[in-house]
Specification:
- The complex is a heterodimer of chains A (200) and B (157).
- Chain A has ten helices and no strands.
- With 200 residues, chain A is an all-alpha fold.
- The radius of gyration of chain B is 45 Å and the shape is elongated.
- Classes of the chains: A mainly alpha (200), B mainly alpha (157).
- The interface between A and B is large, with 61 and 46 residues.
Chain lengths: 200, 157
């Protein structure tokens, strides 16, 4: 697991138990650990930092509510549950904005790309490569994109992804493999559009 | 590529070097996006969720207090019913003994052993008939001749 996404699973059950009793410090530790991961996943999908933060806040508001009322019963699978809540929230956002065409997420994505520089695009060491990856990810099917984003933005292991999606681990592994192949093909076609056209 | 999963996940086909490089690039992108989370994100999430964090345990404590009260009340009620029942039984037992009922009558159910065990019923009937016979013999003994003492002088005794 990437170092910044390591789940420190040893003390997570203790933190969750403490947080459920209203322990501020434990809840704060959980937020420090998971808020950036949820944000990165939402950010990859909506491309707008403000909207991604709003989604992140609402995800944790729901998680806090469920935890404190005892509605969280997936003991030992907190990550899967958290990211399932996050995925559902992102999808809800897409659906609600698609009902209002002037505010569709796609429009926001285009606006974000065209009207101002992407603050994250230039943040890495390889902004051009990152931007190419983002554009390729956007062209994946929803199922393939979800696996890629849970894996590489959310920092989840394949078992946690399988649990979050309620699918066998083998299916998730196969889908990840297939998504990587598609991404490779998409990136090549973006880099050499004329060559791809000629080959077609 | 996630080193943890390289060891523990069984991939259908091993990744080619090109796909491994692509997965590593995606890891790098994800790491970059996590690092680019807005400053103070966790603080703002905390402030938004802190209210429910504090409110819910209070509610849970209230539920716990109500639950404890109900449990204590139930235990008290059961104890009271038990004490009353035992004292009534004890009083009933004492009354039976005091009214000179036989021990057998006192411990038998109201409708008798006969109703639930025919073998016991027969045995009991035998015992009762013997008791009745003994009782009648005693009665007849005392009523044989009420004057027999009169016929006996003190000296003869």
């Amino acid at each position: 697991m990437p170092a910044d996404a390591a789940d420190h699973g040893d003390d997570l059950p203790r933190l969750l138990a403490l947080a459920a009793t209203g322990d501020d410090r434990a809840w704060r530790s959980i937020l420090d650990r998971y808020a950036p991961r949820v944000f990165a996943m939402a950010r990859s999908r909506v491309r707008q930092p403000e909207l991604a933060e709003e989604i992140t806040q609402s995800v944790f508001a729901k998680v806090a509510e469920k935890m404190m009322t005892g509605a969280y019963t997936d003991q030992g699978r907190f990550e899967s549950w958290l990211f399932r809540v996050a995925m559902n929230r992102v999808r809800d956002e897409f659906r609600s904005r698609q009902r209002r065409p002037s505010e569709s997420v796609e429009n926001h994505v285009l606006d974000a790309r065209e009207s101002r520089p992407d603050p994250i695009a230039g943040a890495g060491e390889r902004p051009a490569e990152h931007e190419a990856l983002r554009r390729a990810i956007e062209q994946l099917s929803d199922a393939d994109r979800t696996v890629i984003e849970l894996r590489h933005h959310g920092g989840l292991g394949f078992k946690e992804i399988a649990s979050a999606l309620d699918e066998p681990t083998g299916t998730v592994l196969a889908r990840h493999h297939r998504a990587l192949k598609k991404l490779k093909s998409l990136i090549e076609s973006m880099a050499h559009p004329s060559a791809q056209e000629q080959s077609i | 590529m996630n080193p943890h999963d390289q060891h523990h996940d069984a991939r259908p086909d091993p990744l080619t070097p090109e796909l491994s490089a692509l997965a590593a690039a995606l890891d790098d992108l994800g790491r970059s996006d996590r690092a680019a989370a807005p400053p103070g994100l966790a603080d703002r999430v905390y402030f938004r969720t802190a209210a429910s964090l504090r409110a819910q345990p209070a509610r849970a404590e209230r539920r716990l207090a109500i639950g404890s009260f109900v449990r204590i009340a139930a235990v008290l009620a059961l104890t009271t019913v038990g004490v009353i029942g035992v004292s009534r039984l004890a009083r009933q037992h004492n009354t039976l003994v005091a009214t000179d009922m036989s021990v057998l009558d006192a411990v038998l159910p109201a409708d008798g052993v006969e109703s639930w065990n025919p073998i016991a019923s027969n045995a009991l009937a035998d015992v009762r008939s013997e008791l009745d016979a003994l009782e009648s013999e005693l009665d007849s003994f005392w009523s044989l001749d009420s004057n027999w003492l009169d016929d006996t002088s003190e000296g003869s005794l």
